[in-house]
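quick one, 253 residues, struct below
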Amino acid sequence: MTSTDYRITCERCLKPYDFPQADILDYNRNWTYRVVGPFSVPDYGRGSYSAILALRVLEAFRSSADRMTFSTAMKFAFDGIEKEVDFVAWRGEDRLTPEKPPQLIIGETKSLGRDAVIKPKDVAKLKAVAQKLPDAVIVVAVLRDHFTEKEKRILRKLVTWGRRTNAYGEPTNPVLLLTSHELFMDHHVQYTWKNLGGEHAKFADYNHTRDLHSFADATQQIYLGLKSFSEWRHELWAAHHARRKTKAKSLAS
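---
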């Protein structure tokens, strides 16, 4: 007999009895487990669960050959101010190509919540830190399976800011978005996305998860409905050339 069940033994008289004694409500709303150990820490471990799960995804999303080191609750002091991020990590993209430098990652993680848990102040903090760390990947993670509409509006602004191009034509600070789908994935993210189907399944291939940049680009399309970075950049260039062409015509006339 298990220690917690619908029929348990009294620790005092050793007689079995049915539990709970009252009628069970619909969906067992009055029959719950009380968490113990590390899971009993208030406020979902004060945000530690989502940070730990996000680091797990970063370490194993593509290949067990990748290596990573990290530090949590990192404080940055610059320009007379202090900013703290939930974690900072160095991740080697691929052990088979050692000439590639490790990727710097900064993370902001949140737990559950019906309303928006990603606030404008969080985005402002990430931008301030990332401004000092060009080419760092920004990770934003929540423990639920979606971002709220308010969060999406905030995150679209962060993604657009992070997409400003560097000297190599890549996003200066790509933004990787993680939900419970990725945080609780089994083995590889592409398997999880394939099993989810729908919009996720469209990106369940190697090309969309081959590195952190492509992984981030895929999550921006899945969770924010944005165009890919390449499409976005192409439209910017097309609009830029159209403006120059229009200006040249006006000058010529």
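Strands lie at 7-9, 16-18, 68-78, 81-91, 103-109, 137-141, 175-178.
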